[in-house]
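Q: My labmate handed me this sequence with no annotations at all. I'd like to see what the chain might look like in three dimensions before we decide whether it's worth expressing. Could you predict it?
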Amino acid sequence: MLFVGASFLATKKNPILVPDHVYVPKHEIMTKKEAEDVLQKFNCIPTELPLIFVNDPAILGLGVKPGDMIKITRKSATAGESIYYRYVVEV
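A: Here is what I predict for the chain of 91 residues:
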């Protein structure tokens, strides 16, 4: 069997930025004042919140650094909108 003039084209897929994906909820960096208010409201310290790694694909484009707090707003069919908080840590 002889293949004359056969060429294989390598195609490069267009990368999809994770924060722009339809299933990724809205992530926002909180100001220090907002973070303090949330911690006071829930009577906790930042490390008692759920953690999120600084290299998490959902927050890569936000310019977060360890020690920041993230506010995640999710749409819900039953609750309408749910808000979650995460504390950014290094890997």
